[in-house]
Backbone:
């Protein structure tokens, strides 16, 4: 009597969360991240209020300097000249610096280890972080624009196309800096060393990218170095929105080069996605 041949049933596949649930978890995580962000005064100051403070300092300290004139012959104030750089710096601080330090701390204090034992997908976790950066970045930009317009009487653009440029430069910049922050968070060996590793990088980028110093006054070789990194392009995009058209001749290529801004920032977005995908772990391998 022959034995019955067992049926070959396919192995059960690993269950996956529905896309709708993944998106919902990401939205809930973003709400949690925003609430947590504003509960830390040091983080709010160094990434949210810092550009506003620097705009006020530069606008006051250099109020007597000559920053050129607009198309109508009216002088460009120090606040108007520094506003684009501070907006770009705010994107970098809210995205790259904030996330790099925050996620390095979460590795050290066991937050990521605890999340690894929950059903939270990595995509939802990333969406929560990027959502937090988007919300805080928008609030920061709105505050900067309000302070510039109401306190320092900076005339804001009236042409719709300039605001369209602002929208895509801002959104692309926020997303790119957030993704780069996720990738950079793998560099510090511990949460305690995160600030010491990340903040110097951010400061150097600000000084060579036309945030605190007039970009056209920098040596050509330093302009070329800055052109490798995204902050230079974000600052250039913001200058294209808020400075008179004649200032385009001061850029490295003699114009605003919006196509180059999109290409360079998009390239860094791709680099950041690859680095984040290859390096992110819920638990650091070396413990």
Residues:
């Amino acid at each position: 009597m022959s034995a019955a041949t067992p049926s070959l049933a396919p192995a059960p596949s690993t269950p996956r969360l529905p896309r709708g649930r993944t998106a919902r978890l990401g939205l809930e995580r973003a709400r949690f991240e925003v609430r947590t962000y504003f509960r830390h005064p040091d983080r709010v100051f160094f990434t949210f209020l810092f550009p506003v403070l620097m705009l006020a300092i530069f606008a006051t300290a250099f109020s007597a300097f000559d920053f050129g004139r607009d198309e109508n012959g009216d002088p460009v104030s120090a606040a108007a000249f520094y506003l684009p750089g501070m907006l770009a710096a705010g994107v970098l601080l809210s995205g790259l610096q904030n996330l790099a330090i925050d996620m390095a701390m979460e590795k050290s204090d066991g937050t990521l280890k605890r999340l690894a034992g929950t059903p939270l997908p990595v995509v939802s976790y990333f969406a929560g972080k990027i959502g937090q950066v988007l919300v805080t970045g928008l609030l920061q930009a709105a505050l900067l624009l309000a302070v510039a317009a109401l306190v320092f009487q900076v005339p804001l653009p009236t042409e719709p196309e300039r605001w369209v440029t602002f929208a895509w430069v801002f959104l692309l910049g926020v997303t790119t800096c957030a993704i780069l922050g996720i990738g950079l968070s793998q560099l510090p060996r511990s949460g305690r060393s995160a600030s010491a590793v990340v903040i110097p990088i951010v400061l150097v980028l600000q000084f060579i990218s036309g945030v605190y110093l007039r970009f056209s006054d920098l040596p050509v070789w330093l302009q070329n170095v800055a052109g490798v990194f995204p902050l230079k392009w974000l600052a250039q995009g913001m200058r294209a929105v808020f400075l008179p058209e004649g200032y385009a001749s001061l850029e490295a290529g003699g114009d605003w080069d919006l196509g180059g801004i999109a290409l360079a920032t998009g390239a860094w977005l791709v680099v950041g996605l690859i680095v984040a995908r290859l390096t992110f772990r819920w638990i650091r391998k070396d413990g």
